[in-house]
Design brief:
Blueprint: E1 2-6, E2 17-20, E3 23-27, E4 31-41, E5 44-54, H1 55-64, E6 82-87, E7 90-94, E8 96-97, E9 101-104, E10 112-115, E11 118-121, E12 129-136, E13 141-149
Parallel strand pairs: 1-7
Antiparallel strand pairs: 2-4, 3-4, 4-5, 5-10, 5-11, 6-7, 6-12, 8-11, 9-10, 12-13
Length: about 160
């Protein structure tokens, strides 16, 4: 199996066809992870993922994604949703683009964090199947793997 990185890139502006989604990938009391849709293009796939966290999980997500501008802060670190995509015999980490995160804190019970990253995978599987592994252990989302059956690329 070959390894590579799927770099953050914008998909083509036109010509995409939704081939999968929406589907919930993980749901807990404080967290919902959805694969909103998979959009096929002649040159690859765009994955649109949505994560909503509430309560303490939202607080942890906010802490993990805060600006790291204090060099004397010993807790300074940054993490985000980790996404790995396997396309046929190629597997790699996907870098997010189009980060749209919102966060609000009214009370402890009303705390919410929401993000909608998009990922560009510059290949469509000949097999019509991708394997998606998603996790964010720093906020309590352990890696989970789903096999997504897309079928032939309708954008070709």
């Amino acid at each position: 199996m070959r390894r590579r990185r799927w770099p953050a890139a914008a998909p083509p502006a036109t010509g995409g066809v939704v081939v999968y989604g929406p589907v919930e990938l993980a749901t807990t009391r404080d967290l919902t992870l959805r694969l909103a849709e998979v959009v096929a293009h002649p040159a690859g796939l765009e994955l649109r993922i949505e994560l909503t966290a509430t309560g303490r999980t939202a607080d942890r997500a906010r802490h993990e994604t805060r600006p790291l501008d204090d060099p004397d802060d010993p807790s300074a670190r940054w993490s985000y949703l980790a996404v790995h995509v396997r396309v046929d015999d190629v597997v790699g980490e996907a870098d997010p683009s189009h980060l749209q995160s919102t966060s609000r804190v009214a009370t402890t019970e009303a705390s919410e964090y929401h993000t909608e990253p998009r990922y560009w995978v510059g290949a469509y599987p000949e097999s019509g199947v991708i394997t998606l592994t998603v996790g964010w252990p720093e906020i309590g989302l352990h890696a989970r793997t789903d096999v997504i059956r897309l079928g032939p690329n309708p954008a070709r």
